[in-house]
Every structure is written in C-alpha cells, then in structure tokens.
Write a structure and sequence with these properties.
single chain, alpha/beta, Lyase, Ornithine Decarboxylase, Chain A, domain 1, TIM Barrel, 2 domains, 9-stranded mixed β-sheet, 8-stranded parallel beta barrel, binds ligand LLP
Length: about 425
C-alpha cells in the first residue's frame, strides 16, 4: 500500500496534488511519501516484534539525507556499502553504532573512517579484506566488530544482475569454507567475531530461497558455536521483493518473512538484523515526467517524455516493468491505446515501455512512474548533460525539495580545462 492515490480525478502524494509540485519544481522529478516510507519500515519492525532486532535500511536504494533522517527518527539503523554512504548516514544524524558496513571492496580509508567514526559491524566479504580490517584496527589500537558474509549457494530466482547468493557470484565466502575463515578471524587480534551475515539477492518474490539460506545459517551458527565462536548476531540481508504490477502474484509480506525468520532462527538466541532497501523505498516514490511530443509511428504512437534513461535506468538495465499512470485520472471507460513510452536520449535503450496501454495523452500531460522510489534517483546520471532531477519529500499537506536540480552553469563549471588548452 502507498499514499499515491487519485482524489477528484487528480493524483496526489499524501495530501499534495502532484500537479502542484510539478508547477513549483518543474519536471521531471522524484517525489517520496513520508507516510509510505514509515509504514514500510514499521512493517518490518513489527514483523520482528518479540525478537531482539534492528532493521538497517539499505540506503543504496534511496539515500537522500531527508529520507535517512525520516527513517532514523523512527528507529532504523543503516546498511552502507561505501565510505560515501557512511558519511551521508552520519551527516543525516545516524549514530555509528547503528551503521552496518557491507560491500565487497572496502578500502583502507573507508575502514579507517568507519572505525574512527563508530561502526556497528563490518560484514567481511573475503580473507584479504579481513586482514586489512585487522591491520587498520590494530594501527588505530581498536577492535573491529565483524561478521563474515557467507555465500550459501542458493538460487534466489530473481533477475541475474541482482542475484548474489550462488557460488558463481562475487559475494561472500563459500559457506563450505566458513569454518576455516572464522578460525582465521578468531586468530586476528584486531577483530571481534560477533556473528554471521548473508544476503542472497534482490527483488525475491518467494520465501523459499530465503528459508533455504537461513536454514544453512542456523546450522552454521551451531557449528561455529561448538568451535568456540561467540555467535550472537545474524545479519540476514535484504531482498524481499515488491509488487511492481497490480496483478495477484504479489510477493510475500514482511509479516510472513518475519514469521519465517522466527521459525528458522528464533531458537538460537541471536540478535536479528535485516537490511531491506527496495521494500521500504520502492513504492514510496514516483518519478513524474511530462509528455513533450506525441509522435505517430507506423504501427504505434510514441509518447516522448522529458524524463529519460539517465533519470530512471531500471527499464533499460534490467528490463524492469514500472506501472505508468496519468496524473489526471482517466475518465471511467475511456478507451486505452498502446504507446511506446520513450525518453529523448539518442539510444533505442531509452525506452520505458513498449506497446503500453494508456489513456489518450497529449503534449504537456503529466505522467507518473510508480515504484520508482528505490534504485531510481540513486542510479541516475547526467548522461547527455541532462541535470540530475530534483527530489521532493511530501509530509501530509507539506512538501519540500530535498535535492535541487543543478543549474547548467553548475554542471558545466565542474569541468576544469588543462593549462595546455
Ligand atoms: N544488503 C546488501 C548487502 C545488498 O547488496 C542489497 C542490495 C540490499 C541489502 C538491499 O536489497 P533490497 O532489499 O533493496 O532488495 N539496482 C537494482 C538492485 C540492486 C540491489 C543490490 N543490493 C535494481 O534496481 O533492481
């Protein structure tokens, strides 16, 4: 459920008409709903009720500081995957002891910054990385809390580009080698082993792969404990999918996911950590764009938008489906027609949808891409010298620009010309 609904024929974000935001900030733009962000966070938090737990929002999904602050004030921790994300979380007021550092290639500088600024734990992805964390911690006279990310070799049954839990993926340490890797960790004086980490992929639409992975984690917990490791925290990653269409095959709900976690891991007495990103932010954001031209083709019409693949790359990159709706509600019974919905970038890949049935639309009409809150703004670029589009946060009947559109001068003046030119 989200808070983007039609009222009297116009699409609203909570209590603000989308058209009012468009008039104030221009198109295209991203708009997020505070109520939806909080609702989704609470679904996870409630699903783990009764167990010691922390929901660490995977901020790679949408990392604007206003979003981070909204979630942090509700009690969320953060999952970060770079030094930049770490600093951004800190800037948004998240305390270090609620920040988890994931990612396959943490650099020495990133590790040093996180250790000195405070960190809940590093999720270690390889032995060489483990040695570097140990060395940096020792140099600082500190002890780094770690988990090891294990790769459980399960098929997440999701898009190949976002599956991470098979042995052929670059992520984590094969679970079959976990005992020796934990033995190495225990021998390094700059590290304190506190738990196990696993993350098998994103946009999972079934519980079964999670359950397979979590059963392996349960077994490993017992084995590691019997070898003397004090395993007390399990980080279970993110990955629960969201409904991108309004069909009936919706992914499992957080409450079902939570019940499965309690069933598979609840008896171990461990603190549970999860890292959802998409389910918190995805359906809490829209990308709003304007039709620039309607062009008639031989067998279809094209809607040419002012938004493009650089603003929302998911359709081009993962063949992702996003529901696209008219901001003015179509009259009941109006006949829909097929359109190719495209951006103005000179690449055929700059296509959001092919032969998508839409109500008749004209130049100047606003349309909204649903489920664009996660992996939307954060993956945008300035390709074609197109400015990064603004982000807007709605809260009840208020809205605020939380990232401005840069001016062309700002963009162009970032380049510097060498003296020989
Ligand atoms: N934890 C780790 C270690 C991750 O790598 C990810 C996502 C998450 C948590 C959050 O997963 P989520 O709950 O959002 O599924 N750009 C792609 C998605 C990439 C996901 C990468 N890792 C997309 O647009 O579909």
């Amino acid at each position: 459920m989200d808070h983007f609904l039609y009222r009297d024929g116009a699409l609203f974000a909570e209590d603000v008409p989308i058209s009012e935001i468009a008039a104030a900030v221009g198109t295209p733009f991203y708009v997020y709903s505070t109520a939806t962000l909080l609702r989704h966070f609470k679904l996870f938090d409630d699903a783990l009720d009764g167990t010691d737990h922390l929901v660490c929002y995977a901020m790679k999904a949408a990392s604007n500081q206003a979003i981070l602050k909204t979630l942090a004030q509700a009690g969320a921790g953060m999952d970060v995957v770079s030094g930049g994300e770490y600093l951004r979380a800190k800037a948004a007021g998240v305390p270090g002891d609620k920040i988890v550092f994931s990612g396959v290639g943490k650099t020495e500088d990133e590790i040093r910054n996180a250790l000195t600024g405070g960190i809940r734990q590093f999720n270690v992805e390889s032995e060489p990385e483990m040695e570097v964390i140990n060395a940096v911690a020792q140099e600082l006279g500190m002890i780094a809390p770690i988990t090891v990310r294990v790769n459980p070799d399960v098929d997440a049954k999701t898009h190949a580009k976002i599956a991470t839990g098979k042995s052929e993926n670059k992520f984590g340490i094969p679970i079959s080698r976990a005992l020796e890797v934990y033995a190495l960790a225990a021998s390094l004086p700059g590290l304190e082993v506190i738990g196990i980490d696993v993350h098998i992929g994103s946009q999972l639409t079934e519980l079964e792969p999670f359950e397979l992975a979590y059963n392996k984690v349960a077994e490993l917990t017992e084995q590691l404990r019997s070898e003397g490791h004090n395993i007390r925290r399990l980080d279970l990653g993110g990955g629960l999918g969201i409904p991108y269409t309004r069909s009936n095959d919706a992914p499992p709900l957080p409450v079902e996911y939570g019940a499965m976690i309690k069933k598979t891991l609840g008896d171990l007495g461990c603190e549970i950590e999860i890292e959802p990103g998409r389910l918190i932010a995805g359906n809490a954001g829209l990308m709003v764009s304007k039709v620039i031209y309607v062009k008639s083709g031989e067998d279809r019409d094209f809607l040419i938008l002012d938004g493009a693949m650089n603003d929302l790359i998911r359709p081009a990159m993962y063949e992702a489906y996003h529901d696209i709706v008219a901001v003015t509600e179509p009259a009941p019974g109006v006949e829909q027609r097929p359109y190719d919905i495209v951006g103005p970038v000179c690449e055929s890949g700059d296509t959001f949808a092919k032969k998508r049935n839409m109500p008749p639309l004209s130049a100047g009409d606003l349309i909204a891409f649903r489920s664009a809150g996660a992996y939307g703004a954060v993956m945008s670029s300035e390709y074609n010298t197109r400015p990064l589009i603004p982000e807007v946060l709605v809260h009840g009947d208020q809205f605020a620009v939380i990232r401005e559109r840069p001016s062309f001068d700002e963009m162009i003046n970032r380049d510097t010309i060498p003296t020989w030119l």
